[in-house]
Design goal:
Elements (H helix, E strand, L loop, with lengths): L9 H14 L5 H14 L9 H17 L7 H10 L11 H15 L4 H13 L10 H9 L7 H14 L5 H16 L8 H23 L6
C-alpha cells in the first residue's frame, strides 16, 4: 500500500489556496509551498474519507454559504484556513490529530507574519472540529457544520462515507469497531441539534438523523452499512 497517493483536485485546490493567500497579501513562494505541503499531507495513507475530496467538499460548502448568505460568516478567510488545516494531520489511531493540525496552522501563519489574533482564531476553529458536545458561537458553528455536512447527504453518499471510514479503521477488529462507531453515531443522535446554524439544519438535519439511524441499525445487526 503506498504511503501517499496523488491528491485529487490538486489544480483546483491550489488555485483556491493561492487566492486565500492573496487575500492576506501572501503571494509568496513560502505560501505556495505550504499549499503543496498541505495537499500532500491530505493524501497520506491510510486516508479514505479524510482526504482532498473531503477538503474540496468543505470549501464548496463554504462558498455556497458565502454566495447565499454573504454576511453570515464574520471572517470567511479564517474559516477557510481552518478548513484547510482541520484534517491536515490525520492518523486514525491518534487522539491528537486536531491539536497537531491546529499547532501546524498556528506556527505557519505566525511564521508568515500574519496577525496573532488570526492564528489563534484558526487554531480554535480547528480544535472545535473535535466535535465535543456543547454550544458553539459565531464562525465556529460554521466550521463545525461544514465539517459535518457529510452526515446529511444522500443515502448513497452517506453509505460511501461509512465504507471509507471503515477503510481508515482497517486495523480495528470488527466487534470493537462496531462498539466504537455505534457510540460515535449515537452521540450525534443524542444531541438536540446536530447542526448549529439554521442554514445547515434546514438542509441536512432530517437526512442526517435518518442516515445515522440506518447506520446504527445495520451495526446493531453486526453488519456494515453498505
Amino acid at each position: 500500500m503506498p504511503w501517499r497517493r496523488q491528491p485529487a483536485y490538486t489544480t483546483e485546490l491550489l488555485a483556491q489556496w493561492q487566492s486565500l493567500g492573496q487575500a492576506w497579501g501572501q503571494s509568496t513562494p513560502a505560501w505556495r509551498a505550504e499549499g503543496r505541503r498541505l495537499l500532500q499531507s491530505w493524501a497520506r495513507w491510510p486516508r479514505a474519507y479524510h482526504d482532498t475530496t473531503h477538503l474540496r467538499a468543505c470549501l464548496r460548502h463554504l462558498q455556497a454559504v458565502h454566495e447565499l448568505q454573504p454576511d453570515a460568516i464574520q471572517n470567511p478567510h479564517a474559516v477557510a484556513l481552518a478548513l484547510w488545516y482541520h484534517d491536515a494531520i490525520y492518523w486514525p489511531w491518534s487522539a491528537h490529530n486536531e491539536t497537531r493540525s491546529a499547532d501546524w496552522a498556528c506556527e505557519f501563519l505566525l511564521g508568515q507574519g500574519l496577525p496573532t489574533a488570526l492564528a489563534e482564531t484558526v487554531r480554535q476553529h480547528v480544535m472545535d472540529t473535535r466535535h465535543a458536545p456543547g454550544p458553539l458561537t459565531g464562525d465556529a458553528q460554521w466550521v463545525v457544520d461544514i465539517d459535518l455536512a457529510i452526515l446529511g447527504q444522500s443515502d448513497a453518499v452517506y453509505r460511501q462515507f461509512e465504507r471509507n471510514v471503515r477503510r481508515e479503521y482497517f486495523f480495528v477488529r470488527w466487534p470493537r469497531y462496531v462498539a466504537g462507531r455505534s457510540a460515535v453515531l449515537q452521540g450525534f443522535l443524542d444531541r438536540p441539534h446536530i447542526y448549529g446554524t439554521s442554514y445547515f439544519a434546514q438542509r441536512y438535519e432530517a437526512q442526517a438523523r435518518t442516515n445515522l439511524q440506518h447506520a446504527l441499525s445495520a451495526l446493531g445487526q453486526g453488519k456494515p452499512y453498505q
